Amino acid sequence: MTTVKNRFMTLGLLTGLGLMASCSDFGDQNINPNAAVTPVTSALLTEAMLGVPPTTATGALLEGIAGRLTTLAPEPRLFAQYWSESQYPENSLYATTFADWNRYYAVTLQDLQTIIDYNTDESTRAYVAQFGSNNNQLATARILKAYVFSVVTDRWGDVPYFNALKKQTQVEYDPQQAIYADLFKELKEASAQFDNGRAFDGDILFAGNATKWKKFANSLRMILALRLTKVDPATGRTEFTAAYNDAAGYISTNADNATIRYTDVNQFRNPDNALFDGRSDYGVSDVLVNKLESLSDPRLPAYATPTSTGDFVGLPYGLTRDLLIDYTNDNPEYALPSAKVLAKTQPSYIITASQMLLAKAEASVLGWISADARTAYNDAIRASWEQWGVYDAAKYTAYIASPNVAPTAGDILAKIGDQRWIALYPNGSEAWTEWRRTGYPNLQPTPYAVNESKQIPRRYGYPNTEPTLNTAAYEAAVGRLSNGDKTSSRVWWDKP
Question: What phi and psi values does residue 469 have, to the nearest 5 degrees?
Fold first, then answer.
């Protein structure tokens, strides 16, 4: 990671250089003849993956593909009921009405688009090839761009896509169905674009390994295909089976997991470590703790901390502030995220083998592929246990044979959903999305909800600047929502 740290020393400068390269109104008078005007695309790739390093000792990595805004976003973890708020429970009570997307578009997606632009522009592509072959850079950036856009559209629904990142201020929102169609196209084309040239420098995800990138692209196609089970199962089946049967394979072992690894340096540490640096605004919810205890699941101590008596006490989910004060006064000890989850060097998991084996199990139940669903389901549990370092052969054998775990023909989709929810922890973004899609696990809203619907949010409201800064596009998109720009409206694939 030493080279990563060194690259980041210049990221602030690179941002400025990118802006300089696009400004020509003042002729040559403000151009330093000794400064580069073409970005270092390897540094942009690292920044797109990790995010912009904080400038304060207690700051956190926000952007990137596995930071505070994506896999480790606190709010979706509240919606998925992984965590409960310990002091200020507004988000647990669904007070959220909108969320901002500027850091997605202005940082991570813009970095990736810049890589694409400079590798396709005839005047710059030869220069930036020193950081990796043009094709390898384009393939990597396109796959990551598809991943980030999938996160964005799954949170808001219709969003600026086809005409985004083109330096326009008025940008229409594209229907999510059209976005999904293009994401499938991009993932297929980008995966085929890798060549035998130089690997892309700055790749802290797969170190330029094209085979692993192709597995990641296929895995993402499979995940997105399952999103369509209720709205377009024919397309979902076609896309899933094509990715599943692709010669490159998909993420089926922990060795291929897509993870961002952090360091013990504060600027590049696990964002959850920063979140709990001197604070404890969240506890592990009683919903998760109780579920794991009911299954005698060995992942519980890997996910949460016990009390001084060795018991696991989940923090009640969805209490008002007054009730929280009463509870914590009477029960000062409750489960916090484990030392493992909060370790500075704990990696952030983007796509894992357990997640994909559960996808395989579901696709088999749906009749999309020829595979044994029970075997895939059991293999997924084992992969998750091994991922968290809790695998024990005897305990595993007993666990998968337990009536609360072993699926039947009538409840296999529910049990796949429950195990997916457990295995995805602490990736609340994906857990919330899968809960919206499947209804599993059977999460209940807090009885103290303050939002209009009194239900768990189904999407984010659009940024509050859009009605004034992008009025026509915003109003057109809101007009396509069943209940207006509210968290109770559903995205395209989210059907009852």
Answer: -95, -20
